[in-house]
Amino acid sequence: MKISELKRLATLGQLAAGVAHEINNPLGGIVVYSHLLLEDTSLDDPRRPNIEKIVREADRCRIIVKGLLDFTRQNSPELKSTDVITIIKEALNNICREPEFDNITIIEKFENGIPYVMVDASQIQEVFENIIRNAAEVMKGSGELIISSRLFSKNGHKMVEILFEDTGPGIPLESIDHVFDPFFTTKGGGHGTGLGLTVSYGIVDRHGGTITIRNRDEGGAVFSVQLPVGEEE
After folding, report:
1. What is the rounded distance in angstroms from the CA atom of residue 146 to the CA atom of residue 149?
2. Residue range 9-23, pLDDT digits in tens
3. 173 and 121 part of one domain
4. Which terminal CB of the chain, N or C, has fewer other CB atoms within 10 Å?
5. Within this chain, do residues 64 and 151 fall inside the same structural domain, yes or no?
6. Where are the beta strands (DSSP E) in 31-123?
7. Which of 32, 205, 3 is nearest to 119 (CA)?
8. Is residue 182 included in any domain, yes or no?
9. Total number of domains constituting the chain
10. For the whole model, what pTM was predicted?
């Protein structure tokens, strides 16, 4: 993204923050009372399908608002020298028990001797979980996700690159330049808010790193996350 685009994102973030905060409280009441109403409605009540739809749509709105709040929060990272491989394994441990991963094979190809990186571990774990979950969704629960790492130099600075390669359909060429745009998604209606990768982009940028995506020659997509090296502890 160019500087002008980052400024546009900041302006959009301020607007989104105001809208999300105004909506969040009344929406919370709708979510709670719709669930209570559903619990009090018998299975044979003819009104139950309509109430179930209210619950589903209210929950979906809550997820969208949470995405907006995550997008606008933009907390400054608390940088510490951290083992990036440990962060990857924590991310995998958190989400790979979800049903979407039942038929997905995770292949780890980590270089030996990867140095520590200067990151906020919780924020970078959120980035990795976004990418891993996105891969599972585009592969529709079946395929391979190859996660690898390497050490390289960039403008005289040591960096660690983490690659996430999936065997899904890849990104359409007309969409690949918009993957990190707010609210952009190639998923069907009701799946995702189009904010997860935008949030991830902001997190990595604030760490002095980069996040990019490209298609694999053999099919599928590759996410690259590059982070600056810190002092090993």
Report:
1. 10
2. 566 666 666 777 778
3. yes
4. C
5. no
6. 80-82, 103-110, 117-119
7. 205
8. yes
9. 2
10. 0.70
